[in-house]
């Protein structure tokens, strides 16, 4: 996984202050996310963890959308 994709997803989920909340959802420290953003290798398992976070957020938003209809 590339750092730019991590940042793109993080910003989409949490806005400009994305690093700390993303770290919490991934179960790592904010420092770890900042290192990944700076170019340290991102472990393979992070992609699956990030997909789970995105999926859960998407499901929650879909439920909210149903309630608004």
Q: How would you characterize the overall build of this protein?
A:
The chain has 69 residues and is mainly alpha-helical. It has one domain (3-68). Helix content is 75%, strand content 0%. The chain contains 4 helices and no strands. It has helices at 3-14, 19-26, 30-37, 45-68. Helix 2 packs across helix 3 (30-37). The radius of gyration is 13 Å and the shape is elongated. The model has no long low-confidence stretch (mean pLDDT 97).
SSE layout and pairings?
Layout lengths: L2 H12 L4 H8 L3 H8 L7 H24 L1
What is this structure, in a nutshell?
With 69 residues, this protein is mainly alpha-helical.
Count of DSSP helices?
4
Number of strands: 0
Main β-sheet: number of strands, strand sense, barrel status? none
Which percent bin holds the helix content? over 70%
Shape annotation: elongated
Number of domains: 1
Pattern of helices and strands = HHHH
Task: Return the average pLDDT rounded to an integer.
Answer: 97
Structural class: mainly alpha
**Unreliable segments of 5+ consecutive residues:** none
Taking the alpha carbons of the first and last residues, their distance comes to 37 Å
Strand content: under 5%
Radius of gyration equals 13 Å
């Amino acid at each position: 996984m590339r750092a730019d994709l991590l940042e793109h997803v993080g910003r989409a989920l949490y806005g400009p202050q994305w690093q700390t909340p993303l770290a919490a959802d991934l179960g790592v420290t904010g420092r770890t996310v900042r290192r990944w953003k700076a170019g340290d290798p991102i472990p393979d398992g992070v992609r699956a963890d990030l997909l789970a976070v995105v999926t859960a957020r998407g499901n929650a938003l879909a439920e909210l959308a149903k309630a608004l209809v």
